Amino acid sequence: MSSNALTESGSAGRTGDKIFSTAAMAAGSLILFVLFCVAVFLVKESIPALTADPADLKGGVSFFTHIGALIVGTLIAAAIALLLATPVAVGVALFISHYAPRRLAQSLGYVVDLLAAIPSVIYGAWGITVLAPALVPSYVWLSENAGWIPIFAGPASATGKTMLTAGIVLAVMIMPIITSLSREIFLQTPKLHEEAALALGATRWEMVRMAVLPFARPGIVSAVMLGLGRALGETMAIALVLSSGPMIASLIQSGNQTIAAEIALAFPESSGLQTNALFAAGLVLFVITLAVNMVARWIVARHKEFSGAN
């Protein structure tokens, strides 16, 4: 190849790099601009509710009193979902990636991906028609035998539409997401690390504990945070499962609610100042989600250098 041809090829490559770099920069800037516009819009629409007389708002209480219960409900539902879903999801991902036979692993992978694609309204309908009635006897037992614990204080819900039921439904919803991402991360573990651990006499579990989990730790955190984001913002499933009302009750009583579900249920019939209050609630959820993602990025950055990937 002549020197002129090499020069033309290098020039074309540099031009392509510049075009790609510019396009990537424009896409990133567009995302930040849209996020900024959303934040400005929410703040603008929230100001009337934040400064309004409590008597003019729903329930005759200040916005912060009303939203406080919704924040607690949102965080409790998301926490229950994470506590239930994370161990099971990571265990299933490990089984698919390192224990199951190839054919079974492929079939399970397809099933997990299919579960992740099911609409949330289906999970909500399942929760209210199947899960909630089935859990009523358990709630009665908890109320009678563990009612001295505040989170299990009675009276138990007769319908099963409680925060614990909502948390279980959310756990089922986010489990496929965490499983799919964790599985792909486990499969990316360097084979040399795994073979070195086995060559030193480690059992399969010891190999997973010493080579796979340290390498995948940042990815697992990212998967869990993605599931948390889904749990925090879930609307239809929670709206179907929970009874209306923002009061803070125990996990087995009716009457809890989350921010996203409250917005979805109240927005169609709202007007004026009540609409501004719902926008303010959306602003609070926006801030919570942003804070969760920032904490997740900090955790991933903190543990990245110890992940074994370097």
Give a short overview.
The protein is an all-alpha fold.
Estimate what percentage of residues fall within beta strands.
Answer: under 5%
Number of domains: 2
The rounded Rg comes to 24 Å
CATH class of the largest domain: Mainly Alpha
Helix % is: over 70%
Major beta sheet summary: none
What are the low-pLDDT stretches, counting only 5+ consecutive residues below 50?
A: 306-310
Helix vs. strand class: mainly alpha
> Could you give the order of the helices and strands?
HHHHHHHHHH
End-to-end Cα distance:
38 Å
Shape: globular
Annotation keywords:
single chain; 310 residues; mainly alpha; MetI-like fold; 2 domains; 10 helices; disordered C terminus
What does this structure look like?
This protein is mainly α. The protein folds into two domains: 1-51; 63-304, MetI-like fold. The protein is 76% helix and 0% strand. It is built from ten helices and no strands. Helix 3 crosses helix 5 (163-187) and helix 5 crosses helix 7. It is globular, with a radius of gyration of 24 Å. 34% of the residues are buried.
Helices and strands in order:
Blueprint: H1 3-50, H2 63-99, H3 102-116, H4 120-145, H5 163-187, H6 191-199, H7 204-233, H8 236-241, H9 259-266, H10 273-304
